[in-house]
C-alpha cells in the first residue's frame, strides 16, 4: 500500500512537473533541438532584418518561430520559409559573409525546404557549399541578388525537386560552359532560371534537360538563349522525358527562324511561352496536337502566314497571345471552338477578313484584343452575347457598318472599350442605358452625329473618354465635370461642339488631359482653370474662344502643355503663366494678343516650345536676353507675323537647343548675326534622322504614350523632321553671314523679302541637308555659287528678284529645279531654264522632283515633338 502510494506520488510528480515544464518552460523533448536553435540564431545574425521578419526568433522553441518548420516527431528543423519581397517590403539584408549563412544552415541537417527568395545577399557569389545540403528537396533563391556563376556543386543536391534560381530583377547570375551538373538532379520537377545568363552554356542544354525524368516545369525566360541552344540536331534530343514537360517558358530570348519543330512532340504542354524572341515563319499546322495547352503565347515575334485552323482543337485553351507578329489571312472560324478561352489577343498583326461570328460562342471570354490589323466587315452582333467580356479592343482596323446597342446587349462586365479608327457609325440612342460601367472608352472616329451622348454621363467611373472625330455637336453638358467626376482624360477634338467650356470641367480635381481642339466653342476661357491642380495637357486650339487669357496661374499647377492657338483671344500676354513651372510648350499663335513682352515673359525656366506667332505683339526682342528662359531647353521659338521691331538681339544665339527659329513677317532691322552659324543643334545633322521613319515613329509613339497615356499606333504616318530658320519679311540689311554655311543640319532657310546685299556665300554647298532655300526679294548680287550644285537634297529653291548674274550652275540637282520662276527678276542670269541661254549650256532638263509635305499636320506635330526631352524623365512619373 505504502509502496503503491509512493508510486502514485512519483507518478503525480512526474505528471505535475511534466505539465509545468510543458506549460511554462517549453523546454522539453517537444521543443526544438538546441544545436539547431543556435544555428538559427547564428543565421539571424548574418542579416539586417529590415522588416522584422525574424522578430519572433527568440525563446527556446525555435519550432514556434516564424518561418521555421519542424518535423512533428523528431523536432528537427525541416523547413525555412523566409520569403522577402524585392518590390514591396524591405527584407533580410546580408551583412555578413554568405559562407556564414550556409555554414549555419548546414547545422540543420534535416532541412528539406529552403526558401530565401526576395531577400538580399548584397551581390555575393553563390557559395559552392550550398551543394552540401544534400537533404534539400526545395530550394528557392529567387531574386536574392546573387551574382556570378552558379557552381556545379549544386549538382550534388540529388534530392532536389524544385530549384528556383531565377533573378529577373538583378540579372547578375550566369551558368558557365558546363551545365552537365543539372543532369545529376534526377528528382528535379521544377526548374526556374529566369534571367540567368545561359549564353555561355554548351549547346546541349536541352539534351541535358532531357535527361531529367521528372522535369515537368521549366522556366528559362530572359536567359540569353539562342538557336545554338535549341537546334542541336545531332544527336537529336531524346524526347522520352522532354515530352513530360507541362510548363515551358522560353520567352525573351534570342531565338531566330521558325518555331522549333520539336515542340510538336511536347504533347503534355499546358503552358507554352515563346514570346519576345525573333521567331519567324509560320505557326506549324499541327499546333492542334498540343491539345492540353491552356496558355499559348507566341506574341512579339515576327511570325507570318495565317493562324492554323487546327488551333480550334486546343479546346482547353484559356489564353491565346499572338499579338505583335506579322500574321495574315483571316481569323479562323475554328476559334469559336475554344470554349474555355478567356483572353484572345491578336493585336498588331496583318489579319484581314471579318471577325468570325463564331466568336460569340466563347462565353468565357474576358478580353478580346484585335486592334491594329486590317480587319474589315462588320463587328458581329454576337459579341453582345459575351457576358463575361471586360475588354474589347478592335481599334485601328477597317471595320465598317453600324455599331448599335445590340453589340453591347449583355456586356455588363465591360470596363474597357476601344473601337476607334475604323469606318464605323455608332448609332446608339441618346436615352440608351448601357449595361456596363466603363473606365476607358474610345470611339475615336466612330460617327455618332448626335449631341454629346447622354448615356456617357451615366458612366460614373470612367477615367478616359475619346470621342474625337465623332461628329458630335451642340454644347457640352454644363455639369459634365460633376457627373463624370473621375475623368482623367477627355478627348473631344475635331467635332462640332459649340457653346462655352463648362466650368465644372475646369474645376475637376481629377482631369489631367483636356483636348477640345477643332470645335466651335466660344465664350471666354474659364478662370477656374487656374484652380486646377491636375490638369497637365490643355488643348483648346482652333475654336472661337474670345476675351483675354486668364491671368491667375499659380505655381502649384501641373500644366505641361498648353495650346490656345487659333482662337479670337485678345489682350496682353498673361504674365502669371510664368508661374507654371512645369510648362514645356506654350502655344498662343493665331490670336489677337498684343503688347510688349519685356516684363511678361520671364522665368519660363523649362519651356521647350514658345509659339506666339500671328498675333500683334510689339516692341523689340531684347526680352529674349533677359527673360531667363532656360537657354538649354528652348527648341522652338516662333514669333512670326507680329509687330516686333528693332535689332535681333545677340542673346538669341545662346539658345543652345534651338531647332526652329521663326521671326518672319515682323519689322526687324539690322543685320543677321554671324553667331547664327553656331546654333549647336543646327550645326550637326540632328540626332533624329528625318529619313528614318523608325526614329521618327519611336519618338512620336513614346511621346504620345506619355501625353495621351495610351497606345496611339495610328500616328504611324511619317512626317518629315525639319530644322529651320525663317527671317523672311523683315527689314534686315547687310550681307548673308558666311558663317551660316556651317549649319549643316539645317533643312530650311528663308531670308526672302528683306534688303540683304552682297553675294550668296560661296560655300553654301556645305549645307548638305538643305531642302528648301529662299533668298528671293532681296538685293543680292554676283553669281550663283557653283557649290550650290552640291545641295543634293534641295527640292525648293527661290532666288527670284535679286540682282544675280551669270550662268546657273549646271548640276543634276539644279537642273531638276526647272521652274523658271525660281530665277525670275534676275535679268542678268542665264541658263537652260531661262529664256536667256548661256553660250555652252547643254544638259537637258529632267522631270521635277518635288516633295509634297502635309504642312498643317506637320506644324501640329512640332509642338508635340519638341516636348519630348522632358517627358521621358521626372515630371510625368509624378503626375500621371
Ligand atoms: C531548458 O531550459 C533551461 C533554462 O530554463 C536551459 O538551461 C536548458 O539548457 C534547457 N534545456 C534544453 C534541452 O533546451
Ligand atoms: C554590400 O557590399 C558592399 C561591397 O561588397 C559593402 O560596401 C556594403 O557595405 C554592403 N552592404 C551592406 C548593407 O552590408
Ligand atoms: C520562389 O519564390 C518566389 C517568391 O519569392 C515565388 O514567386 C516562386 O514561385 C517560388 N518558386 C518556386 C519554384 O516555388
Ligand atoms: C560535389 O560536387 C563536386 C563538383 O560538382 C564534386 O567534385 C564532389 O565530389 C561532390 N561532392 C560530393 C560529396 O558528392
Ligand atoms: C531516351 O531516354 C530513355 C530514358 O533514359 C531511354 O530509355 C531511351 O533509350 C532513350 N532513347 C534514345 C534514343 O536514346
Ligand atoms: C516527334 O515524334 C515523332 C514520333 O513520335 C518522331 O518521328 C519525330 O522525329 C519527332 N519530332 C521531333 C522534331 O523530334
Ligand atoms: C525669376 O526667378 C528668379 C529666381 O529663379 C527670381 O529671383 C526672379 O525674381 C524671378 N523673376 C520673375 C519676374 O518672377
Ligand atoms: C527694347 O525695349 C525696351 C522696352 O520697351 C526698352 O527699355 C529698351 O531700351 C529697348 N531696347 C532697344 C535696344 O531698343
Ligand atoms: C517698322 O519700323 C520702322 C522703324 O524701324 C518704323 O518706321 C515703321 O513704322 C515700322 N513699321 C511697322 C509696320 O510697324
Ligand atoms: C557635332 O558632332 C560631332 C560628332 O558627332 C561632335 O564632336 C561635335 O561636338 C558636335 N558639334 C556641336 C556643335 O554639337
From TrEMBL:
Signal sequence bounds: 1-20
Keywords: Cell membrane, Glycoprotein, Leucine-rich repeat, Membrane, Receptor, Repeat, Signal, Transmembrane, Transmembrane helix
Principal location: membrane
Intracellular or extracellular location(s): Cell membrane
Membrane topology reported for the UniProt record: Single-pass type I membrane protein
The Leucine-rich repeat-containing N-terminal plant-type domain, residue ranges: 35-71
GO terms under cellular component: plasma membrane
Alphabetical list of Pfam families matching this protein: LRR_1, LRR_14, LRR_8, LRRNT_2
Keyword presence, Ubl conjugation: no
Domain Disease resistance R13L4/SHOC-2-like LRR residue range list: 263-469
Ranges annotated as spanning the membrane: 861-879
The family this protein is said to belong to: Belongs to the RLP family.
UniProt name for this protein: Leucine-rich repeat-containing N-terminal plant-type domain-containing protein
Species whose genome carries this gene: Rubroshorea leprosula
Amino acid at each position: 500500500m505504502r509502496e503503491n502510494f509512493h508510486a502514485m506520488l512519483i507518478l503525480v510528480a512526474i505528471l505535475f512537473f511534466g505539465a509545468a515544464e510543458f506549460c511554462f518552460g517549453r523546454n522539453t523533448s517537444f521543443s526544438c533541438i538546441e544545436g539547431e536553435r543556435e544555428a538559427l540564431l547564428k543565421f539571424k545574425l548574418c542579416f539586417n532584418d529590415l522588416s522584422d521578419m525574424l522578430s519572433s526568433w527568440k525563446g527556446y522553441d525555435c519550432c514556434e518561430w516564424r518561418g521555421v518548420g519542424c518535423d512533428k516527431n523528431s523536432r528537427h528543423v525541416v523547413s525555412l520559409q523566409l520569403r522577402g519581397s524585392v518590390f514591396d517590403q524591405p527584407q533580410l539584408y546580408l551583412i555578413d559573409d554568405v559562407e556564414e549563412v550556409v555554414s549555419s544552415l548546414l547545422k540543420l541537417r534535416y532541412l528539406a525546404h529552403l526558401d530565401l527568395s526576395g531577400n538580399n545577399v548584397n551581390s555575393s557569389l553563390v557559395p559552392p557549399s550550398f551543394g552540401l545540403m544534400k537533404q534539400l528537396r526545395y530550394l528557392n533563391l529567387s531574386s536574392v541578388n546573387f551574382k556570378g556563376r552558379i557552381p556545379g556543386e549544386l549538382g550534388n543536391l540529388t534530392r532536389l525537386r524544385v530549384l528556383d534560381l531565377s533573378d529577373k530583377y538583378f540579372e547578375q547570375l550566369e551558368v558557365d560552359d558546363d551545365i552537365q551538373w543539372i543532369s545529376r538532379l534526377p528528382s528535379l520537377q521544377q526548374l526556374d532560371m529566369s534571367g540567368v545568363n545561359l549564353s555561355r552554356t554548351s549547346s546541349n542544354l536541352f539534351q541535358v534537360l532531357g535527361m531529367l525524368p521528372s522535369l515537368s516545369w521549366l522556366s528559362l525566360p530572359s536567359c540569353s538563349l539562342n538557336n545554338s541552344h535549341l537546334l542541336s540536331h545531332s544527336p537529336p534530343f531524346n524526347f522520352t522525358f522532354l515530352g513530360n514537360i507541362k510548363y515551358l517558358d522560353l520567352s525573351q530570348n534570342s531565338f531566330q527562324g521558325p518555331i522549333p519543330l520539336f515542340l510538336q512532340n511536347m504533347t503534355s504542354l499546358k503552358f507554352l511561352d515563346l514570346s519576345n524572341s525573333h521567331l519567324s515563319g509560320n505557326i506549324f499546322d499541327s499546333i492542334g496536337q498540343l491539345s492540353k495547352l491552356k496558355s499559348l503565347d507566341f506574341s512579339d515575334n515576327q511570325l507570318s502566314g495565317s493562324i492554323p485552323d487546327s488551333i480550334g482543337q486546343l479546346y482547353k485553351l484559356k489564353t491565346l497571345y499572338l499579338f505583335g507578329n506579322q500574321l495574315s489571312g483571316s481569323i479562323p472560324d475554328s476559334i469559336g471552338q475554344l470554349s474555355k478561352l478567356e483572353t484572345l489577343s491578336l493585336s498588331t498583326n496583318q489579319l484581314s477578313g471579318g471577325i468570325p461570328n463564331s466568336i460569340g460562342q466563347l462565353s468565357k471570354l474576358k478580353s478580346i484584343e484585335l486592334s491594329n490589323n486590317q480587319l474589315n466587315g462588320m463587328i458581329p452582333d454576337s459579341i453582345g452575347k459575351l457576358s463575361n467580356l471586360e475588354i474589347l479592343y478592335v481599334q485601328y482596323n477597317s471595320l465598317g457598318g453600324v455599331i448599335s446597342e445590340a453589340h453591347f446587349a449583355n456586356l455588363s462586365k465591360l470596363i474597357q472599350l476601344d473601337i476607334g479608327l475604323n469606318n464605323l457609325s455608332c448609332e446608339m440612342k441618346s436615352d440608351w442605358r448601357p449595361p456596363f460601367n466603363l473606365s476607358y472608352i474610345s470611339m475615336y472616329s466612330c460617327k455618332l452625329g448626335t449631341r454629346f451622348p447622354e448615356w456617357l454621363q451615366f458612366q460614373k467611373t470612367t477615367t478616359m473618354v475619346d470621342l474625337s472625330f465623332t461628329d458630335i455637336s451642340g454644347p457640352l453638358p454644363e455639369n459634365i465635370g460633376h457627373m463624370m467626376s473621375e475623368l482623367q482624360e477627355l478627348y473631344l477634338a475635331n467635332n462640332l461642339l459649340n457653346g462655352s467650356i463648362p466650368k465644372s470641367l475646369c474645376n475637376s480635381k481629377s482631369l489631367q488631359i483636356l483636348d477640345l481642339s477643332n470645335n466651335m466653342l466660344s465664350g471666354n476661357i474659364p478662370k477656374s482653370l487656374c484652380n486646377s491642380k491636375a490638369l497637365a495637357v490643355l488643348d483648346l486650339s482652333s475654336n472661337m474662344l474670345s476675351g483675354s487669357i486668364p491671368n491667375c496661374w499659380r505655381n502649384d499647377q501641373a500644366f505641361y502643355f498648353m495650346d490656345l492657338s487659333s482662337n479670337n483671344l485678345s489682350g496682353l500676354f498673361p504674365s502669371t503663366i510664368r508661374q507654371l513651372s512645369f510648362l514645356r510648350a506654350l502655344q498662343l499663335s493665331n490670336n489677337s494678343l498684343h503688347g510688349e513682352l519685356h516684363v511678361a515673359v520671364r522665368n519660363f525656366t523649362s519651356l521647350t516650345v514658345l509659339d506666339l506667332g500671328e498675333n500683334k505683339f510689339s516692341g523689340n526682342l531684347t526680352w529674349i536676353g533677359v527673360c531667363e528662359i532656360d537657354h538649354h531647353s528652348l527648341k522652338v521659338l516662333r514669333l512670326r507675323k507680329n509687330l516686333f521691331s528693332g535689332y535681333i538681339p545677340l542673346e538669341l544665339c545662346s539658345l543652345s537647343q534651338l531647332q526652329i527659329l521663326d521671326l518672319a513677317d515682323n519689322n526687324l532691322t539690322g543685320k543677321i548675326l554671324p553667331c547664327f552659324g553656331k546654333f549647336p543643334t543646327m550645326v550637326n545633322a540632328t540626332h533624329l534622322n528625318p529619313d528614318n521613319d523608325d526614329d521618327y515613329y519611336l519618338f512620336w509613339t513614346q511621346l504620345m504614350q506619355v501625353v495621351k497615356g495610351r497606345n496611339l499606333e495610328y500616328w504611324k504616318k511619317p512626317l518629315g523632321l525639319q530644322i529651320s530658320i525663317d527671317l523672311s519679311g523683315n527689314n534686315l540689311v547687310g550681307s548673308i553671314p558666311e558663317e551660316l554655311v556651317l549649319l549643316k543640319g539645317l533643312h530650311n532657310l528663308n531670308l526672302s523679302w528683306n534688303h540683304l546685299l552682297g553675294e550668296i556665300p560661296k560655300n553654301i554647298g556645305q549645307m548638305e541637308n538643305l531642302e528648301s532655300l529662299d533668298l528671293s526679294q532681296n538685293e543680292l548680287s554676283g553669281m550663283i555659287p557653283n557649290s550650290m550644285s552640291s545641295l543634293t537634297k534641295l527640292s525648293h529653291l527661290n532666288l527670284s528678284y535679286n540682282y544675280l548674274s551669270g550662268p546657273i550652275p549646271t548640276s543634276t540637282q539644279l537642273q531638276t529645279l526647272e521652274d523658271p520662276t525660281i530665277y525670275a527678276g534676275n535679268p542678268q542670269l542665264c541658263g537652260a531654264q531661262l529664256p536667256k541661254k548661256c553660250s555652252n549650256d547643254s544638259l537637258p532638263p529632267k522631270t521635277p522632283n518635288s516633295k509634297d509635305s502635309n504642312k498643317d499636320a506637320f506644324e501640329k506635330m512640332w509642338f508635340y515633338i519638341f516636348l519630348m526631352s522632358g517627358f521621358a524623365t521626372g515630371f510625368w512619373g509624378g503626375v500621371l
